[in-house]
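Tokenise the fold.
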Amino acid sequence: MKKLIVLFLSLIITCSLSAQQSFLSQQRNYSRVRQAIAEKEEIITEKLRQHGLTANNVHILITAFKTEKQLEVYAKKNTETTYQLIATYNICASSGELGPKCRQGDGQVPEGFYHIDRFNPSSSFHLSLGVNYPNQADRKRSNAKDLGGDIFIHGSCVTIGCLPMTNDKIKEIYLYAVYAKNNEQQNIPVYIFPFRMTNINFEIYTKLHENNQEIINFWKNLKTGYDKFFSEMKALNVGVDNNNGEYSF
């Protein structure tokens, strides 16, 4: 009887460990992911070590800034709540102008508070991470029949509304996300801002768009979330007003 109990407990532990590793194992089935691991695992491991983290306990959060053409990766232990900046990457191409994406074909990069909803290890753009545009706020704000979609953080260096990072850098970003997902992070936040929304920058860009009160009001709403994240360094608890699509935090 004791042997059966020990065997049963052993099976439970084995199944638990297998489940923990299942997403990473699944991703390893793809040649581009295996190549990314071969090329970048040592770099990522060292970067995480410098910040007191490992691939086995990391959760991440991504921010992007359209004007500065930069994407940042923040990370924390899966048992903690406060993030720290671990990597900054250049966004290598852009399309559209400042302001949110509102419809299919407008060429705009979205602005707002999103999360990763897809991993594509066989992307036409090497590797890609899907962003859940349009979200609830986008749907409330736009009257367009077709808001568009298929917004990705991806490789290559061409774009119509996405965030291209080059094939080299997407390997690192993709692996950070894979490790986080493998550590049971259900939602990897992606916060996309028109610019770094410091008080000085906000004054400059709202002045440039002083004849567009709609976009100024939208940016004021984004800045509330921007300020909260960068003062607390914690993932935002984002809500959406069902009447006007404004974010709440």
The radius of gyration is 20 Å. Confidence is low (pLDDT under 50) at residues 4-19. The first strand starts at residue 58 and ends at 65.
